[in-house]
Structure formats: structure tokens, C-alpha cells
């Protein structure tokens, strides 16, 4: 297994070498990385949907863990990728000192349960720590190997984090006394139970030289990285300000909930820079600011003051990448990449890191990343969905249907249904007002859900709609009010229509009239009341007709470790793949 890990690392490194920014070395590059003595940096940029580089991020993290020779310390928001947990367990079995800290909100999720099986959770010097329960989040996704080699990511090593949202990751190495020491200090606090406001002040200088690339490093909340450092630079921008955020809420309000100085949106609005561009996720665009009485988020605040924004379609309501580019069109640009979202809690209760780059090759690569994110986003999102002219073309398909709900550990039966859609095309599709209906005998009497206004599904993206009560999912794109429960015993078909007034063109059909979902448990979903197990029905070929029972199968997961998007009270009893590729 150790050889496989090293081989994966070698393959990844050479695939990234051509595109890598930052210092390079004339020595054997693989040996240089494995020994961890030569200053080096390899960035990875990942996109949601087509072009996703989640595999590179995963391999890079696994290789960092797998090549440790003495110690590995990791601080994660959460973790559920099997390869990462396997690498940590293998390191422990090799006698490596392994310590991990994760956000307490993810207790009893797959990562916690797996890691607690081989890392001690009790005692004065235990190996597995939890912290930041409640509103504060541990947006620190860091692994430090041998105090000299570091992997960092703005997204957690989960299926959603690495594969379903934009993210930035970087591997770098240097002598223990240089840049890695800063991250070693931070992760050491996390793996000894010091999260959030309990964290010690690091008291170290904040800029480090990695060969010829200078890197600024700040940690929230103790160093107030966002408000005291980043925002003050934004208002000094001379030519341009470009922002991408997964959660863009006010970080500074006066007593009357009005924006004031030191608020990112306020300073962006009044900055002298003539060019201002903002790209946000769907969540950031549509969600009311939880800390403002008026409920206006920063994107809408700027739009109401003449600075429009673009929206990234189909994004999870969670962290990904958050970055600010200043003076990108000059010879002295700067980039600020944070693992935490831009909100009021950034400098108060969130743990996270901020990277500052002024080294032009690195900044140029981040500018290219931003431009690609912007190109995949929409300047305006209509509240009216697209009309489909030809029926059953399957532009968007019903990729997974949980018609049976879920069981909790007590055996209580909950309706808690969900429906997953998949965009089979290479374009964004506005599905606002599109409707899912279910029924039997050719009649579709039950309107299960209607997609909310301004809902856009991106190319190659999954989108999950959850019932608004007793939701079993850890993450979903939309929790839909007015959900019409799918009649379990008689339903034989569901369909997706474009919902257009006077049109209602059928886009896709799942199931065959006369063949009830309950009649073929091997294909069309399982409700096993004896063993208290439920399994969703999943489309086998996403681009083949759903009006054929042979193109469906019941979820084949066998362990909680495969239930990567279920809440901790459902992962042993309810099986599915909401938000990512279907089971085999």
C-alpha cells in the first residue's frame, strides 16, 4: 500500500509539474518532494462540474500523509474520503505519530466514526480532537507531515468539498524553521483541542519566503485576518477589485444593522478602483444575511448600489474557495485566498487560514482560476425557467429518487424524501418553476416539488431537493416547502416537466406505467421494514431512458462509510448517493 501511495504521488506530481507555479528546482523533483528539503510549491485549482480536479487534490493529500516518516497532524472541517482515512490508518500502523482535529458539528459522521476506531479519543494526550461546536466552523483543512511538508485546502476532504464545489489546494515544503512552522503551530493547536476563541496567540511573523515566492499567512479568528488585514487592503486597490465568495454576508454592521467602514462590501463600494467584479455561489446570492435585520446580503447590497454580480450555478451551501484579487491588470497584483467564507463570524468564531500572494506567477494562476469561475457563472438569473420545445430529450434527468424516506436508529419511519436531478448537457439550464410529479397508471396526480425561482443547474452537475421536514441529508441544494409526499404503495412513474405556462413539456420520465416502485426492490428502491433499511432508486446510465426499469438499480452501499451525505442519525439505516455519482 505504501508503494501505491508513493506511485499515486509521483503520477500526480508529474501531471501537475508543467502547470505548477512557484519555485522549481534542478534536482530530481520527486525525490525533492519526498525528502521535503527543497522549497517547493504546487497549487491545484478545482471546479464544480466539468474540469473538476478533485482527484488531484485527493491524491495530493493522500501522498502528503502516506510519505510521512515521523509525524502527521491534520485539522479538518470534516473528512469522509476513504482514501484519506486509509492513509491516516496506514500511517498509524507504520508507527507514525498521527493527530487529527475536526469540527465538533461532524461528530458521529462517517469520518468521525472511522477515525475514532483507530485514534484515541480519551486521555491527557489523545490523538483525535473535536472543537468549534455550534455556529463556529473549523474551516482549517491542513495536514503537516514531518513538520516540513504541508497540504492545505479551502475545502474539506469530503465528496462534496473536493468534487462538487470550487476549491484551491496547495502542497508546499521547506525546512522546519520556515513556512511550515507557521502551519505546524496552527495544526498543533487544533490537534490538542484548542479551537476558536480558546486558541492561543501564535506570535510569529506573518510573511515567509518560499524560495523566491513570498507567502503571507494569517489565521482566523485570533489574528483577525479578514477585517484587520484583508479589508483594509481592499480599499487601497488602485485599478481593480475582484471577489469570489461561497458565502458573502456583512462582516461589519453598526447598531442599526447598517453597513459601515471595515465591511467588505462597504469598502468595495466606496473604493477608488474603477473596476469591480463580484462572483458568488447560488447560496451567497439567494440567502438573507443572518446577522442583518434587513436580511440583505453583500451581493445584493452591492447590486443595489450599482455593482452587479455573477452567480455560480448549482453550488452547495457550504464552503469552497473565497478569494480577492486586487489590481489584477497591473505589474503588481495581489491575491488573498481564504478557507473561510466572508461573513461576520470570520474573525469571531471561525477557524481558518488566509494566504496572501504577491508573487506574480502565482497570482497570475489565481487570476486565471477566477476568470474560469467567472466564465462558468451567470450575469443574471431569471426567476422564470427555460422552456423545452421537444419532449423527452433528457436535458435534465431524474438521477435518484428517494420515495421511501428514511429510518432513524430507533426505527422510526420518516417521510423525509429527496430527489436528485442531473444536467446531461454542456450548458447551464434554468429550471426555475420546473415540476416533479408522480403517480400511477399514466396519471401524475401528485405534484411532489417545484424548483424555486432562480434555480440554475450547471453542466454535469447534480442538484438535490429535500423535503423540508425530518431531512436526513447533511447537505442539499434546496429544501423545498410544500413538498407533496410520493405515494409509496402505488407509484409507478415520476416525471420532470418544464413547468412553462401552457406548455409543461415532459423533460424526463422515471419508471414504467403498471410496474410499481415497490414491486422490484432490486431496481426501484427498498423499504425493508423488517431490517429497518431503506435504499433509494438510482439511474444506472444517466444518459439513457429512465422509462425502462432495467436502467435503474437500488442503492448498493453496504456501510455507513459509503453514506457520505447523510446525517449521523440516518447513515446506518438509509442508503443513497445524494449529490454525487450513483452507486455501482
Account of the 3D structure:
With 584 residues, the chain is of the alpha+beta class. It folds into three domains: 2-204, Endonuclease Chain A (Endonuclease, Chain A, 2-Layer Sandwich), CATH 3.30.870; 225-375, 2-Layer Sandwich (Endonuclease, Chain A); 396-575, Lamin Tail domain (Immunoglobulin-like). Helices cover 20% and strands 26% of the residues. It has an eight-stranded mixed beta sheet with strand order 8-9-15-14-13-10-11-12, with helices on both faces. Strands 1-7-6-5-2-3-4 form a seven-stranded mixed beta sheet, sandwiched between helices. It has a six-stranded mixed beta sheet with strand order 25-24-19-16-30-31, with no helix packed on it. Strand 5 and strand 6 form a beta hairpin. The chain starts with a helix and ends in a 9-residue tail after the last strand.
The level 1 CATH classification of the largest domain is: Alpha Beta
What are the low-pLDDT stretches, counting only 5+ consecutive residues below 50? 1-27, 200-204
Strand order of the largest sheet: 8-9-15-14-13-10-11-12
Q: Quote the average pLDDT.
A: 87
The CATH homologous superfamily of the largest domain: Endonuclease Chain A
The assigned CATH architecture of the largest domain is 2-Layer Sandwich
Count of structural domains: 3
CATH topology of the largest domain: Endonuclease, Chain A
Shape designation: globular
Largest sheet: 8 strands, mixed
- How large is the share of residues in beta strands? 25-35%
DSSP strand tally: 32
* Continuous helix count: 12
Termini separation: 24 Å
